[in-house]
């Protein structure tokens, strides 16, 4: 499961509802939730955040906490 998948599971959101609100297909949401090699686009992140009523910055920070600048 991906970080997005874990986040959505923790929030107990309905992927069918997200799909309906965002226009992102259920299969794409499943791929984003289950396949770690699938890349999440910025527009998808923004729409998903709006659909689940969270600040897009909060979702971004949660999903990419492991990214750090090189020293």
From TrEMBL:
Domain HTH cro/C1-type, first and last residues per copy: 7-62
A Pfam family recorded for this sequence: HTH_26
Protein name: Helix-turn-helix domain-containing protein
